[in-house]
Amino acid sequence: MKAIIPPDHRLVVQVPPELPAGPAEVVVRILDAAAEKGGTGDELLASGLFGIWKDRTDIDDSVEFARRIRQQAERRHG
Question: Which of 38, 57, 2, 9 is nearest to 65 (CA)?
């Protein structure tokens, strides 16, 4: 769930009725507004993410490598 913290810093959270009553833990993560809005292609290029793995010698075929990583992740979560 995403919310905007109002000026009075009071956040009311209504949970789905199927959740059981009782103890719970609520975690608030403050989001970086710039990261939330996304960015331009130029900003992404300037971020340093492109080429981050360029010196890796264990990746011959990047498409196949990405496919294998996705398959491993699906097996973990599925």
Answer: 57
Res 78 pLDDT > 80: no
Alpha helices in the chain (DSSP H): 33-37, 41-46, 62-77
Domains of the chain: which residue ranges?
Answer: 33-77
- The CA distance from 17 to 74, in Å, is 30
CB 1 within 8 A of CB 13: yes
Q: What is the pTM for the complete model shown?
A: 0.36
Instruction: Please report where in the chains the tokens 């290029």 appear, as a residue.
Output: 45
* Separation CA 63–CA 61 (nearest Å): 6
The residue among 24 and 1 whose pLDDT is bigger is 24
Q: Residue 21 to residues 2, 18, 38, 39: CA-CA distances in angstroms?
A: 22, 9, 37, 41
